[in-house]
Amino acid sequence: MSANNICLPVIQAPMFLLSGPDMVIASCRAGIIGSFPSPNARTVNILDQWLQQITSELSEVPHAAPWALNLVMHRSNPRRHDDLELAIKYRAPIVITALGSPAEAVESVHAYGGKVYADVTTIDFARRAAAVGVDGLALVCCGAGGHTGLLSPFAFVDEVRQFFDGEIILSGAISNGRAIRAAEVLGADYVYMGTRFIPTQESLAQDEYKEMVVEASGADIVTSDSITGVKANWLKGSLEKVGFDVDNMPPPGAINFLEAASDAKRWRDIWAAGQGVGSIDRQQSVAEVVEQLTDEYRSCL
Ligand SMILES: Cc1cc2nc3c(=O)[nH]c(=O)nc-3n(C[C@H](O)[C@H](O)[C@H](O)COP(=O)(O)O)c2cc1C
Questions:
Q1: pTM value?
Q2: For residue 230, is pLDDT > 90?
Q3: Is the Cβ atom of 70 under 6 angstroms away from ligand 1?
Q4: How close is the Cα of 26 to the center of ligand 1, in Å?
Q5: CATH ID of 3-203+283-299, from 4.10.1110.10, 3.20.20.70, 3.30.1300.10, 3.40.50.2300
Q6: Nearest C-alpha to atom 8 of ligand 1 is from which residue?
Q7: What are the tens digits of pLDDT across the range 16-53?
Q8: 122, 168, 258, 290: which has the highest count of C-beta atoms within 10 A?
Q9: How many whole angstroms from 167 Cα to the centroid of ligand 1?
C-alpha cells in the first residue's frame, strides 16, 4: 500500500473540537490520511494559519501521506465559500464534504487535481453525492462516534457498490487492525476512524474525556437524538455527569440541527464516542496507534 505514501488504508476522521493541525501532521507523518473539520479553526484567518502550518510542516516530511479538510456544505453555514476557497488556495489533496451537497466542491477541487469525498449516512445521500461526481463516499454506519448512520456496513457497502464504482470509505466502530482488514474484505478502499484517535496525545480532548474512552466498553455508548436533534453516539458517563437519565432521554424537540451540531458548548460538555471504544486500552501518540493498527492488520493478512 504505497500509493500516495499511504501505509495503511486509514483516514483519521474529522472530529469537532478534537482534531487540529497536530493530529493531522502526526497522522500524515505516520502514513495515514489526516483530517480535521474546518469549524475547528474558529475563524477563516485561523483556518488560513492552520493550513499554512500543515502544508509547510508536511513539505519537510519526505513521504507524508495526503491530508484532508472536512467542510460543512449546508446552505446555512456562512463560511462554506470562504473555507472552500482556502481548500483551493492550499490545494487540499482531499476535501470531505458533510451536511450538504458536494457539487460546488467537486468542480473547483477537481480543477487543481484534488479529490472530493462525501460523508453520507443513507443510501439516498450516497446516490445524490455519486450523481454529482464525487471521487469517494464515506459511509457512516451504525456504531460510529458522533452523528451516526443506522445501516449495517454489510448492507450499506453492498448497496452502494451496485451504483458507485469510486472509492468507498467505511466507518462505524472500526477501532483495530482486524476491523480494517474486514472492511477491505467487505469492499471498502479505506476506513474512517474517529474514536480510536480521541485518546491520543495530539487530540484536543481534555484528559478526563480521554480517560473515559480508555475505560469504556461498547455498553457505555448511548445512541440519542436528544442532544443535537439527530442520532449520535455519546459516552454514557458524560451524559450522566450533566444530569441526564440515560434510560429516559428527553425527546429531541424543535431543534435547529446545524446550530446544535456546531454548538461547541454542547460538544465540550457531552462527549461523543463510537462503539469501538472497547478496543482502546490506553492513551497513545498517533504514531503508536498507527504502529499498533499496522501490526494487527498485518497479522490477519
Ligand atoms: C468526537 C467526535 C466528533 C466528530 N465530529 C465530526 C465533525 O465535525 N464532522 C464530521 O464530518 N464528522 C465528525 N465525526 C464523525 C467522524 O468523522 C467519523 O465519521 C466517526 O468518528 C467514525 O466512527 P468511529 O468514531 O466509530 O471511528 C465526529 C466523531 C467524533 C467521535
A1: 0.95
A2: no
A3: yes
A4: 18
A5: 3.20.20.70
A6: 16
A7: 999 999 999 999 999 999 999 999 999 999 999 999 99
A8: 290
A9: 19
